[in-house]
Amino acid sequence: MAGFLRRHGAVVVLALALVMEPLTPGVAGAELGHHVVGGDRGWDAASNIAEWSAGEVFRVGDSIWFTYSAAEESIAELGSREEFDGCDLSNPIRMYTDGLNEVALEGQGPRYFASGRPESCRAGLKLHVAALPPLERAEGPAAAWLPGGDQVPTAYGPASSGSTPLAVSGLVLWAVVALLCSMGLAVVA
């Protein structure tokens, strides 16, 4: 079990963090999106980040989570499309090196992330996110739809897939944590 926790401890911590966020004062009733980059595999050379991102829709107020082996990988946030396309890691805005990082999408527009290892970046381990405005709250069944067809994928990569955005509800997360606790896996040493 200790080996499992060493390999998957970050995922357990992420699950707990996602559960606790709705309990934080000031966010009650808000539906924020949480996107674990790469899905189950996380940020890894074996992941197909482009395929994962093709079905994601990112909005202001959402969070993207990077999970990766800090011993093997890091993530650079880049300042321009040119740096992103060319895997130019010489002047990053920020480096992420902890193995588990949350990045809040606080404003509209593009964000660029790439592997801190040039060879991994050139092999496609990178993510371009375009944050849309937050959804307006309205009453009735049409509340989830915006005029003008605003329901488009906003993470770009070379491949497309039918994956759907990660929808997180407090009840589902509580159930996951309860399951982990019952299996003895939610205790991180």
Automatic annotation (TrEMBL):
GO terms for cellular component: plasma membrane. CDD domains: Phytocyanin. Residues 33-133 form the Phytocyanin domain. The keyword Signal applies. InterPro entries: Cupredoxin, Phytocyanin-like, Phytocyanin_dom. One of its GO terms (molecular function) is electron transfer activity. Keywords: Disulfide bond, Glycoprotein, Membrane, Signal, Transmembrane, Transmembrane helix. This is Early nodulin-like protein 2. It comes from Anthurium amnicola.
